[in-house]
C-alpha cells in the first residue's frame, strides 16, 4: 500500500475569496482585541458588583468587620473599602493580545489569596475579581466569530 499523501485541490472562487477575507481580517486583530479587553473590563466590574461570580466570595472575617465598623466602612462591599482596587483595574490590547490587571501592590493577594500582615499571620482568602465566567468566555468566542465573518 502506498504512503503517498492524498492531495485535493479546490477550484472554487467563492471559497477562495472567503478564505482571503478571513486571512486579511486575521492579520489585523487590534479591533477584536480591543473588544475582548472591554469584555474583560466588564467582567471585572460585574465581579466587584456581585462580590464574586458565579460563586460568591468568602465573607469578611469578624475581625475585619469590627475594623471596618470602627472607621464607618461596614457594612459595605467586599474589596471596596476605598474603591482603589476596583479603580486600579486596567486593560491593555494590541494586535496580538488583550490583557487585564492591576498594578497595586496588594492586588494579587486579593485575587489569589495567601498570607499577609505582620509575620504573614493573616490568611486572606482568594476573591478572584479578574475571573471570567463561562458566559464571559462565550462572549469572547462570539465576538471572535463575528469579527472573522
Count, helices = 6
Output the helix-strand order: HHHHEEHEEH
Characterize the largest beta sheet: strand count, sense, and whether it forms a barrel.
2 strands, antiparallel
Distance between the termini: 42 Å
Q: What integer is the average pLDDT?
A: 90
Unreliably modeled segments? none
What best-fitting shape do the alpha-carbon axes yield? Answer: elongated
Q: What proportion of the residues is helical, as a percent range? A: 40-55%
How many separate domains?
A: 1
- Computed CA radius of gyration, to the nearest angstrom: 23 Å
Count of extended strands: 4
Class of secondary structure makeup = mainly alpha
Strand content bin: 5-15%
Across the major sheet, the strand order is 1-2
Describe, in short, the structure shown.
This protein is mainly alpha-helical and 149 residues long. It is built from 6 helices and 4 strands. Helix 2 runs antiparallel to helix 6 (134-148).
Provide structural commentary:
- The chain is mainly alpha-helical and 149 residues long.
- It has one domain (13-148).
- The protein is built from 6 helices and 4 strands, in the order H-H-H-H-E-E-H-E-E-H.
- The strands form 2 sheets. The chain has a two-stranded antiparallel ribbon. The protein has a two-stranded antiparallel ribbon with strand order 3-4.
- A hairpin with a 4-residue loop joins strand 1 (90-93) and strand 2.
- Helix 2 packs antiparallel against helix 6 (134-148).
- The model has no long low-confidence stretch (mean pLDDT 90).
Amino acid at each position: 500500500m502506498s504512503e503517498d499523501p492524498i492531495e485535493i485541490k479546490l477550484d472554487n472562487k467563492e471559497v477562495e475569496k472567503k478564505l482571503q477575507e478571513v486571512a486579511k481580517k486575521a492579520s489585523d486583530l487590534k479591533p477584536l482585541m480591543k473588544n475582548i479587553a472591554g469584555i474583560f473590563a466588564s467582567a471585572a466590574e460585574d465581579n466587584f458588583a456581585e462580590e464574586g461570580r458565579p460563586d460568591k466570595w468568602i465573607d469578611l472575617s469578624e475581625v475585619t468587620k469590627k475594623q471596618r465598623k470602627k472607621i464607618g466602612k461596614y457594612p459595605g462591599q467586599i474589596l471596596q473599602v476605598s474603591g482603589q482596587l476596583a479603580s486600579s483595574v486596567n486593560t491593555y490590547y494590541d494586535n496580538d493580545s488583550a490583557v487585564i490587571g492591576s498594578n497595586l501592590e496588594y492586588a494579587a493577594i486579593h485575587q489569589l489569596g495567601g498570607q499577609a500582615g505582620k509575620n504573614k499571620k493573616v490568611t486572606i482568602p482568594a476573591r478572584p475579581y479578574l475571573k471570567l465566567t463561562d458566559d464571559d468566555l462565550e462572549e469572547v468566542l462570539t465576538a471572535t466569530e463575528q469579527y472573522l465573518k
